[in-house]
Design a protein that fits this description.
It is a multi-pass membrane protein. GO terms for molecular function: peptide transmembrane transporter activity. This is MFS transporter. The chain contains 18 helices and 4 strands. By secondary structure, the protein is mainly α. The chain folds into 2 domains: 408 residues, Up-down Bundle (Growth Hormone, Chain: A), CATH 1.20.1250; 29 residues. It has a two-stranded antiparallel ribbon with strand order 1-2. Strand 3 and strand 4 form a beta hairpin. Helix 13 packs antiparallel against helix 14. The radius of gyration is 22 Å and the shape is globular.
C-alpha cells in the first residue's frame, strides 16, 4: 500500500552530550535561535500595533472599529493563531515533517505581512488571516525541533529551552520599538512592512542552518498510509463542515453579528480541539501505560497553562488599551509610544532567563519541580490580574492617568510568572508527550494559549457593558482559585511523572559530578 508523506530517513547523529558548539549547547540551537528571533520579530511587531490599527480612524489609516470589538478581535486572532497549530502539527507528523512545515509556514507569514503593508482594507484582513495560518505551521514544529536536539536524559534540555526562549524575547523586545517608531513616523503600513522583512530573514536563517540540525525535522514521524489518508481527508471535511455549522448557529444566536459569531466559533473550536486531543491520545493504541501516566500528569499542568495565558495574552489587548488611554505618556519633554510597553516583558526575560535557566538546570528533578512551578506561576499571574483590576478602577483615563512606570512593573511581575511556566511547559511537553504524537502534543500545549485567549475574547464580548476593572477581577478570581487546586494536586501530579523527574535529577547529578572532576 502506498505511503503518503514518506521521506528519506534522517542520518544518524551524534549524542547531544558530545555537541557543545553553541554556548555549551548543540550548535543547531544557534540556527533555530535565529529563526525564532526573526519570526517573533515579525509576529510581535505586527501585534504591537494591531489593536491600534483596528480601532484607529480611517483618516489615520485604521479600520475604525469600536474599542471593545477591536479588543475581542485581537484576542480571537491570538486564539486562532494557536488553534491553527493543530493542522501545523498534523502536517509535520503525518505529511511534511517538522522542517518543511516550518519553512512553508514562514513563507505564508511573509506573504501575510506584505498584504498588511498594502493600504487597502481587503489586503489587511487577508494579511491577518495568512499570518495566523503560517504561524500555526511554525509554532509547534520549531519547538519540537529544539526538543529533538537533546537526548532524553540530557540535563541541558531546560537550559536549552531557556536560551531558545531568549531568542523569542530579543525579537519581541526590538520589534515593538522599531515597528512602533515606523508606524508613528510613516503610518501603520510601513510598520507592517518591517515585519515582512523580519520574516524574510527568518526564512534565510532556517535554510542556511539546515546542515547543523543533522537531519532533525526531516523525517515524518507517523506517515499516512493510503487508508489513513482517506480517513484524515474525511475528518478534515467534517471539521470544515462542523466549523461552518458552528458559525451559522452562533451567528443566529448573536442576531447576525458577524464578529461576535467569529469570537464564539474560535473559542468553541479551541476548547473542543483540546478535549479531542486529550481523548485521542488517551485512547490511542500507540500510547503505552507509562505514556498515559505522563498524560494524566500533564492535564492539570495544561489547565493551569490555559488560565495563565488567558491573563498573560492581554498584553496586546486590555493592557495595550491601558497604555494608550489610562497611562501618562508624557515624561518631561519625551512622549512614550504606547506600543513600546510591549517591549518590557521581553527585555525582562532577556535579563532574567539566564538566571532562572541556570537555577532550573541545577535543581532538575528537585523542588520546585514541574507541578510546583506551574502552581506558583498561576498564582502570580492571578495576582497581577487583581492588580490590573485595581489600576483600571483607580486611573479611569482622561485627567486620571497612571504613572508611566506602573504598567511596566505589572509587565515585570507577569514576566516572573511566565519564566516559571512557559519555557517549563515547552520542555515538559517534549518530555511527557507520547512518541507517536510529538508535534501534535506541542500543538496541544499551544492550545493552552488558544483556549485562554478564546475564553478571554468571550469575556471581553460578554462584559462589554461592564468596567475593565470587573473584567480583570473576574479573570483574577478564576485563576487564583485554580492555583489553589494546582497546589493541592502537586503530590499526585509528581507521582504520575516520577520517572521523568528522577531521570532529570540523576542526569543533573551526573553532570555536576563530571564537572567536579
Amino acid at each position: 500500500m502506498a505511503t503518503i508523506g514518506k521521506t528519506t530517513p534522517a542520518p544518524a547523529r551524534p549524542s547531544s552530550r558530545d555537541d557543545r558548539g553553541f554556548v555549551g549547547h548543540p550548535k543547531g540551537l544557534a540556527w533555530l535561535f535565529q529563526v525564532e528571533f526573526w519570526e517573533r520579530f515579525s509576529y510581535y511587531g505586527m501585534k504591537a500595533i494591531l489593536l491600534y490599527f483596528i480601532v484607529d480612524t480611517v483618516a489615520n489609516g485604521g479600520l475604525q472599529i469600536k474599542d471593545s470589538t477591536g479588543e475581542a478581535i485581537v484576542a480571537t486572532y491570538g486564539a486562532a493563531v494557536y488553534l491553527l497549530a493543530i493542522p501545523g502539527g498534523l502536517a509535520a507528523d503525518r505529511l511534511l515533517g517538522a522542517w518543511r512545515s516550518t519553512l512553508y509556514g514562514g513563507i505564508i507569514i511573509m506573504v501575510g505581512h506584505i498584504c498588511l503593508a498594502l493600504p487597502t482594507v481587503a489586503t489587511a484582513w487577508l494579511g491577518i488571516c495568512l499570518v495566523a495560518i503560517g504561524t500555526g505551521f511554525i509554532k509547534p514544529n520549531l519547538s519540537t525541533m529544539v526538543g529533538e536536539l537533546y537526548d532524553r536524559d540530557d540535563p541541558r534540555r531546560d537550559g536549552g529551552f531557556q536560551i531558545f526562549y531568549m531568542s523569542i524575547n530579543i525579537g519581541a523586545f526590538l520589534s515593538p520599538l522599531i515597528v512602533g517608531f515606523l508606524q508613528g513616523r510613516w503610518g501603520y503600513h510601513v510598520g507592517f512592512s518591517a515585519a515582512a522583512v523580519g520574516m524574510g530573514l527568518a526564512i534565510l536563517s532556517f535554510v542556511a542552518g539546515k546542515k547543523a540540525l543533522h537531519g532533525i525535522g526531516s523525517t515524518v514521524p507517523n506517515p499516512l498510509t493510503g487508508k489513513d489518508g482517506a480517513r484524515v481527508a474525511g475528518v478534515s471535511v467534517a471539521v470544515v463542515v462542523g466549523t461552518a455549522v458552528l458559525y451559522f448557529v452562533f451567528n443566529a444566536l448573536e442576531g447576525g453579528a458577524t464578529t461576535a459569531a467569529i469570537v464564539d466559533t474560535v473559542a468553541a473550536l479551541s476548547i473542543v480541539a483540546a478535549v479531542g486531543y486529550f481523548v485521542m491520545m488517551f485512547r490511542s493504541p500507540k500510547v503505552d501505560a507509562t505514556e498515559r501516566s505522563h498524560l494524566a500528569a500533564y492535564v492539570p499542568l495544561w489547565v493551569g497553562g490555559a488560565l495563565f495565558f488567558m491573563i498573560f495574552e492581554q498584553a496586546a489587548v486590555k493592557m495595550a488599551s491601558f497604555a494608550k488611554d489610562n497611562t501618562q505618556l508624557q515624561v518631561g519633554g519625551f512622549t512614550i509610544n504606547p506600543s513600546w510597553y510591549q517591549s518590557i516583558n521581553p527585555v525582562a526575560i532577556v535579563v532574567l532567563a539566564p538566571i532562572v535557566g541556570w537555577f532550573f538546570t541545577r535543581r532538575a528533578g528537585r523542588f520546585p519541580q514541574t507541578p510546583a512551578k506551574f502552581a506558583l506561576s498561576v498564582a502570580l499571574i492571578g495576582l497581577s490580574a487583581m492588580l490590573m483590576g485595581w489600576a483600571f478602577g483607580t486611573w479611569s483615563g482622561g485627567s486620571s492617568l497612571a504613572p508611566f512606570y506602573f504598567l511596566g512593573l505589572v509587565f515585570v511581575m507577569q514576566t516572573v510568572a511566565e519564566l516559571f511556566l512557559s519555557p517549563v511547559g515547552l520542555s515538559a511537553t517534549t518530555m511527557l508527550a507520547p512518541k507517536a504524537f510529538a508535534s501534535q502534543a506541542m500543538a496541544l500545549w499551544l492550545l493552552t494559549s488558544a483556549v485562554g485567549q478564546g475564553v478571554a475574547a468571550l469575556l471581553i464580548k460578554g462584559m462589554a457593558g461592564l468596567s475593565d476593572a470587573a473584567f480583570y477581577y473576574t479573570l483574577g478570581g478564576m485563576t487564583l482559585a485554580c492555583a489553589v487546586v494546582l497546589f493541592a494536586l502537586v503530590p499526585w501530579t509528581q507521582r504520575k511523572m516520577k520517572d521523568v523527574e528522577d531521570m532529570r535529577r540523576d542526569s543533573s547529578d551526573a553532570a555536576r559530578a563530571a564537572r567536579a572532576h
